[in-house]
Amino acid sequence: MFDGVQLGRYFIVRAVKSSADTEKISALSLSTENEQLLMSNVTVGQVQAGLDDFYQDYKNRKTESIDAVEVVLEGAAGMPKDQLEQFVLNLEAVRL
Q: What is the pLDDT of residues 7-35, one digit of tens each?
């Protein structure tokens, strides 16, 4: 997961051909800010433990892994439990 984020950033950087390509530069900036916010103070072990905990709840087992990782990272970044629960419900609604 961590490597995938870095690889995605690498692809964006390679796609930026000139400084006039503002959409791609904005995407890179947003990606970097989100990465720093969500992943700077979390370890792979913490994500693994968070995923184990998340999937222990039977109702979460249909949640796709990429969404579950986002839930775990948001929780580790300090999102309050009630907001996190609503976040999960919103993910489910988008998938329907």
A: 877 777 777 766 666 676 666 666 667 77
Distance in angstroms (rounded) separating the CA atoms of residues 17 and 64: 34
The domain locations on the chain are 2-39, 44-95
The CA-based angle 67-68-74, given to 5 degrees, is 90
User: What single-letter amino acid sits at 72?
Assistant: V
| Nearest to 12, CA basis, from 2, 42, 22 | 22
The pLDDT value given to residue 96: 59
Q: What is the DSSP string of 62-95?
A: TS-HHHHHHHHHHHHTT--HHHHHHHHHHHHHHH
Average pLDDT of span 59-76: 91
Residues 6+ apart with CB under 8 A from 42: 73, 76, 77
